[in-house]
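Q: Could you write out the predicted structure for this multi-component system? I'm mainly interested in how the pieces pack against one another.
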Amino acid sequence: MITSVLKTEEHYISERPYYIEVNGEVGLFEAAYSNSLPVLLKGPTGSGKTRFMEFMAWKLGRPLITVSCHDDLTVADLVGRYLIHGGETIWVDGPMTRAVKVGGFCYLDEIVEARKDTTVVIHPLTDYRRILVIDKRGELMEAPPEFLLAISYNPGYQSVVKDLKQSTRQRFLSIDLPYPPPEIEQEIIIHESGIDRETAERLVAFGGKTRNLVESGLPEGASTRLLLHAAKLVQAGIDCQTACRIAIAQSLTDDREMLNALGAIMGAIFSC
Amino acid sequence: MLTGGTMQDDLLESLKGNMRLDHFEEREIETTLELISALDGDSPGKVTLLCHALSRVSSTLIPRTLKHIRRASASLQSEDLLAWVERANEILDSEGVLHFVNYMTKSGFDELEKFRSPQFPYFREASGMLELYLRGISGKTIGVAPDNEAYTDTATVYLPGGVSRFRDHEMNLLLYEFMTAHKWAEIRLGTLLPENSAGPDGLESPGLEESLGMFPLKELATDLFTILEAFLVDGYISEELPGLMHRVGRLKEAEFEGRPTLDNLSRRTAVVEALYQYYLGKRLKGRCPPEIETLLPILDTMAGVHPNALTNILQRFYAAAVSAPGPYNPERPLFFFGVVRPDRISAMLKKERMDREKEIAEALRRLTKGLAAQDLRPKQRFPGRPRDEREYILVGEVAIEADGAVKRAVRRELPGLAIVKGSDLAGDAVSATIGELLGGREDREEREEAEKYDEWDYRRGDYRRRWCSLFEVESAKGDSAFVESTLLKYGGVVKKLRDQFETLRRYPRMTRMSSEGEMIDIDAAIDAFSDLRAGKAPAEKLYYRMERKARDIAVLFLVDMSDSTKGWVNVAEKEALVLMCEALEKLGDRYAIAGFSGSTRFECLYYRIKGFSETYSPKVRDRISGISARDYTRMGPAIRHSARALGGVDARKKLLVVIGDGQPQDIGEYGGDYAIEDTRMALVECKARRISPICVTLDKEAKAYVSRMYGEVNYFIIDDPRDLPRKLAECYRRLTT
């Protein structure tokens, strides 16, 4: 079986991604785009930031290039490097350069994970200059009006050694994307998994209860993504409580007491 | 209970006789018998036997033995307790007194583990999970505590020390969960705090206890209320937690099987029993008492009833019950889901009222003293803002801004004083504040050595310059044995922390693109070669280096030493600091510890416990031991002073960890929004100096204000002070990795 391979910059999203607007974020993003402002998406893990980016890329008709940041990410990984190919030295553009060239959306996911000396490469792109500096080629590339840089960030991540510098974050327009309200979260789960409404309601109720425990030692409550995983398992024939245990509880914590409490809450919500 | 029978009577008489021979007074003998009689199940008989055997050796052994038995009864269900007592008898018979005494002394919870039947869960083991369960289902911080029965006073959920209603562990644990959920639902619905509740004569009376007390047969009324309320509460739980109600079905069925037949009971008792059976199984064992035949359908509609209507429905059932002949003698324990304790609810409400009245009295006293003792020298004419909706107390021509406590105090105790709006005072009054009246005595001498700090006044949108006087003093020394005893108490935890923090100390990582190292960084080498071929200058950093990256963090722990930390909280704070020091000594981060308290803006005290350049010496340990609860909590100056201390340290990351148990509060106006806003501003100033402030609070109600001061994520709430020692180090580890 041969799967299709596209170059990233050719990846225009042709089908509308499923997304329900929660709090006017679509209009805010469009306003940012029309004013060539970079965007910072703030929200807990699994709250729909990447899906939102896909939706906006589809809506505005631009290709979306996503980079998952980590602490080994270098400037060359973003901008490009020389490679030797068939005895010749060729320059290969990195994802950021490709996005700038085609006027696409460049989305840096979990920006705090990247090294500070890497993230500074985005600074000239995010102020009035809108240029990408390619040091190795001695070039400055001006970003077209269609280009947009977006980054994502989880503000609930409590660490003083991994934080977004003010000099970086103050370049962006921030859009808050918390977990959707229960009625919307239910619709998302029903649509994405095909589960019945009652089970979706119960899953969302359970997710809400886990979020109540964040200050009691649970690092984060269940994300919409985890609830979706559980829904898909239920749809595949796994019973609700087992699905919640392996898709949600065990993913959230290893603490025995917390797992017991989550198990009791599961048992309180699900009759199946 | 001692039920008596001829042999038992003989035994008791013999026991009494022996105790008299050993010079026990009649009063002491009676007390002994009462203690024995108070034990559950079949234990009294066995314990009498044991005491009799002891009395033949020496009756002086009896009081201590009973003390151990009472201690053990807190850790063992009645069947298990019986087995333990029986074993004690055997040891006394076969091995003698010394071995018996040794056996009895091992009556603590952990020591009795082997006697506990596995099917009976205990509160001590389950409480952690149940508290989380309660937090999860309610979204609120409601405490869980042990008692003899399951009930709530609307602030705390009390649960029995152990559950042995069923033979199966899982069912008993489920019962714990159901009791917890049931009590939460009572709090949520407000069924125990009826508004406009009415007694049988229809007159209004406040409170459930008063309402039920108006029924001549209070016990009957209370039991009827409990069942009717259970129908209502179950309806709510079915909506919110359907899985739980589904599972509880089998508990109800098992409970129903054990209920007596109605025909064997007095009619009045049968009325109550019938309602309970209907609750359990929607059916009855025996004939329905005619007095409630027409009322039973009401029970099917209880789920939709408003809680305020409960007492009226109770009246109808009560009237039916008292019209039934015979006494009310419930045969078996009722209500596997718990009981209603109107007395505890009243006590809790009374305490809240008393606390409030104390606050009012304090505010009044301050106000009165201020008026009586002060030669008021107001600072400025009233600004005269026409739209000023704030309220002021007018005293002569002085307008004193009235906070909530002052307003309540005046309305209740000094109704002669006028409370007016600022918009009515333009140009006609001069302004002063409560703080100026009470603490701002102009003739007070200010000590030269004070550090002056500004204070933020959010109402004016500006600072009060050099408003607070802070004195840095060395903390008093405490009991030097405290640190050792803490390390002993937390032995396992200390070792684990040391290991964890040792690993964090210089966590190894492979650093790419180094100019030297143990391995070639292939990616960097390829890039360099490619650059070279392209005619560009290649990079020189082509190696991987195994680096143990040193941390560059400085942290200051600022400990609340206000009066509210007295007792458990103070001990927990000190223990937490001891463990934290042990961990930090392994980690190598630079750290300092200070405490704060004080009284008014003139005396903000800052206790130096450990400086950044100090080693963790015996002196420092003594100072940690000497941390004690003192006065008030004026946080702003303490935070600003700490920020200054951290500013003098050269570190890449600086952390200020504030450990406390409540809101900022001081004499005078430093409370409520004023104090929160000043504290918030002090924390903003920290951030401007690149210091990350974090709050670790023991106040379960902290969320309302702590997020306002520290931000949405920069705080940790610890539910139980006893968890602070273990959790503080964990919080620190999470923050700094």
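A: Regarding packing and overall arrangement: The radius of gyration of chain B is 34 Å.
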